[in-house]
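Discussion board: Methods & Data

I've been asked by a reviewer to show the raw model output for two of the constructs in my manuscript, not just the figures. I'm not sure how much to include, so I'm pasting the format here to get opinions. Each protein appears as its amino acid sequence followed by a line of discrete structure tokens. Is this the kind of thing reviewers expect to see in a supplement, or should I convert it first? Here is construct A:
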Amino acid sequence: MLDSSSVLTGAAIDERYYHDLAGKALAKPRAVVRPRTTEQVSDFLRLCHHEKVSVTTQGGMTGLVRGALPNAKEVVLSTERMNAVEEVNTSAGVAIAQAGAPLQRIQERVEQEGHTFPLDLAERGSCTIGGNISTNAGGNRVIRYGMTRDLILGLEVVTADGTVLHGLRKYLKSNTGIDLKQQLFIGSEGILGW
């Protein structure tokens, strides 16, 4: 469950949770929730779904279309504490990172092992891999390596009702059914799962 430092309300909600890149303020959200684990996200979304509370997800806040800005009655789900690169498997050529991991952190961690994570954006220090996936980011090396979609083997996704879809894979081929990551989640702007 979430501890008290994971939930911000009232005056504890910093302006960054409801200001756009130009500094224009919107209404302050009802609360900001900052989970550390998939289980905490699942529990939180299950509760919001049950209580019919709208949620806006925020990552690096580098998007220019204001999609991560909340309405007054919404709760912000911030990925800022889910920022770890959990594993780098050099023999498989795979890295596993949490949704809030900054792109630059993933690049640097993979480079420590003598490899390259080819997705590269100008905002690499602040954009998050979750946001890159949700927008199917292209970036500076897109012609050579493809879109984000081409770099993702699997995803673990939490749907709006709190259901966790376990789809992390370390291999390219899978004949186990519909590839939900490619068909539903990558490029969906986070509307189908978190």
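Construct B, same format:
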Amino acid sequence: MDVAAAPAEFDPWSPAFVADPYPVYARLREAGRVHWFARSNQYLVPHHADVSALLRDRRLGRTYLHRFTHEEFGRTPPPAAHEPFTTLNDHGLLDLEPPDHTRLRRLVSKAFTPRTVARLEPVVRRIAAELVDGLIENGGGDLLRDVAEPLPVAVIAEMLGIPAADRPLLRPWSADICGMYELRPGEDTAARAVRASVEFSAYLRELIAARRAAPGDDLVSALIAAHDGESRLTEQEMVSTCVLLLNAGHEATVNSTAGGWRTLFRHPEQLALLRARPDLLPTAVEELMRYDTPLQLFERWVLDDIEIDGVRIPRGAEVALLFGSANRDPAVFADPDALDLARADNPHLSLGAGLHYCLGAPLARLELRTSFAELLTRAPTLRLAEEPEWAGGFVIRGLRSLKVEL
């Protein structure tokens, strides 16, 4: 069966589409289960059942290099000039497949246990309270810059044992590296990512050397100590893991926080309900992640031929799993375009599924619940000061700022 082309309205480089992709997603779902998007050479998959199944399907992978060379897979190797970024990216959990992913995740999990997250709870509460205090004292401000962004960065930095004086370096490095995860990044984006990769890697190698000489009660020291029989983390794996924990550990949380508050301001009756019923906060956080997904698209390489609805997708192709569309699929979610903070049955895919399910999901949920609780209880008159703008990215989708007042 021939595959249908994606409609022209599917345009990840259009500010109007990025601002509200959901009507286009609805048309994609109605038109079929798979679509060809020529501008990125990808097969788009918009339905929840297919996205969920493919996230668990071992015929797909985040990389193909564990089975094929670039040439065998019909792909061009990345440019030599991108090498610092490529090396950093290729040694992280997100872009590894078994057996390397299995080994690395098992080792990292020993240093990233539920006990670690539980021990961080008072730290998260303290940092969130301090940030909200500052916002209240100023009578408002940019909620993204003043609360949403510094909280997860500070928490991850605390986990890694990065000194407070160095923490302003982290977010710019992360933003420059994450630019490479958008569709068709340009050479300017690549140059920034390469520079950030070099600088961030050098910083972390110095930090690792210092922790080897004088271990502390932090995640870098725990990663150094983590071992599984004769298998230990290499220094490059430690560097890549620390970068991934920072990038993945705050990008989604920042965008879920700011985007979640934008959503609440646009649904005043649901915001009033949440203020009156703080016990709804756990389900509210899940619903806000579902309703406006921070990670809209996740890519997979096709390692062995697959078929979706009669369409053969060959080895060497790439599929784009549309999380934002899956999370609005009426086959799974009742009244999917409505915000329902009490929604109990909520199998959203915002944190992934399968072996690449978000390792930091418990920490992300803790940070979101804590920051929302602090703002809901201590800033009950918080309101939008001006209509926010989207930053422009589609894969990692977030606001440029969120100006609020009390």
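Answer (T.O., handling editor elsewhere):
This is acceptable in a supplement if you add a one-line summary per construct. For B, something like: The CA atoms of residues 106 and 228 lie 8 Å apart.
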